[in-house]
Structures are given as structure tokens and as C-alpha cells.
Amino acid sequence: MNHLRKPWVLVLTFLWIGAFAQAPPVTIPSTGFAGLDKYRASRIAIYANDYGELARYREANAALKPPAPNENRVVFFGSITDIWKLDQSFPGKPYLNRGIGGQTTSQMLVRFRQDVINLRPQAVLVLAGTNDIAGNTGPISNADIEANFASLAELARAHNIRFIFASLLPVHNYTPKAQEFFAERPRERILALNAWIRQYSSANHLVYLDYFDAMVDSQGMLKRELADDGLHPNQAGFAIMAPLAQKAIEQALKAKPAL
Fold first, then answer.
1. Least confident among 32-36, 61-65, 97-101, 230-234
2. Domains in the chain and their CATH numbers?
């Protein structure tokens, strides 16, 4: 125990402990958008302790029974999906909502096994990417978003789950509360990702669900009446999306799972 005879060792130890005790609180660099900065700051505990937010659906998943014979279970997976009342849009259908508002594709990858694969659905409908563009979990390039998209699709394929790939929705700035959401999501990035999704779906024999063309106006923005805040569909918005989703699901279920 020779180190106990060296006072400088104790001094350095106390200095090291003191440095951690006095460390400043964690701060997140500004995005330039006040609302987004506030949102990201409010998520620090989640990003640090449960990045994928696995706790959100863990109990519901544990209580869920296995699919019945011939049950066409479908998981709706995404961010905007979170506020979609599936039981109203698809009464009697065995569709599960596993959306979490604000999530990015990086977070969705973390929970894909728990909230999709383990539920043994026939198909999964993925609507994602808009929060990546906004930078909810930090800056990310289109190329990296596309890589996440491809990983989700490949995981589904590996487990014989049909994959329905929805386009990103347009956004608008027609209302005061829509201004920041619109500014965070440049139109050219939405269009570029949608072009990639369409091409990837075609190349890999996936169903492409085109919400964008059905909801965009003559100015290239989301129709004013479909979202009060420019981003999240209201009842009128989901009324347009529901039959498109149902048609895509029926198309996917007719196809054999890709092996």
C-alpha cells in the first residue's frame, strides 16, 4: 500500500472527484429554432436513459396475445402515427399503433425488434423521416436517413414481414404555429427522400404508399385544411390517409413475404 504514503495521490484523487461534482449541466447546441431547442432540451433524460423509448410499449406488448390463425396483424410504425386513432379509421381491423411522436429513424431502429418483429405482424407500415430532417436527435444527412430506412426494410424482410414504405408528408406555413415546423423541414430534402423511397421500394418489390401527392397543394405545401400546425394531420388529414393506407395494406398482404 505504498501509494498511501504519497499525499499527492490523495490530492489528485480529491481534485478528480471535485471536477466531476462541479461539472456543469449538459447542454445541447442550439439548432437556431427556439421551439426545437426547447424540445431537445426536454428530451435529455430520454436520450440518456432510454434512447429508443422502449418503455413506451413494453407493457402493452407483454399483454398482447399472439396473432390468431389467419389474422392479418399490421403494425403502424412512425412518429405521426402516434396521434392516429386507428380504431376509428380502421374499425375492426387488427392494426396496432406503435408510433411515438417526435422520434427519428435512429430511435425507431432501436425498438424495431420489440415493437414490430416480436409482435409477429403480417406487415408493417412505416411513416418516418420528417423528424430526422428537423434534427430532433441531432443533424443527420439524407444518406444516413436512407441507410436507416434500408435497415428497417431489411430487418422486416429477414423476419418475413411485408414492408409498406410511406412517403414523407408535405408541410405548410399557413398558420403562425406552422412557421417553425415548416422552416425546419426544407422541401427539397422531403422531395429527395421521397424520390429515394419510391426508387428503393420499386427496386426491392415493396409497396410504396404515396401520401405526399394526395395531400400537397398547388404551392407544393401540405393543404391548409389538413393540418392546423402545418405538420401533424388533423381529422381531415387522416381521412385522406386512411383509404390510401388500407389499399397499400391489401396490396402488401396479397404478395408473398420476400425471403
1. 32-36
2. 10-254 (3.40.50.1110)
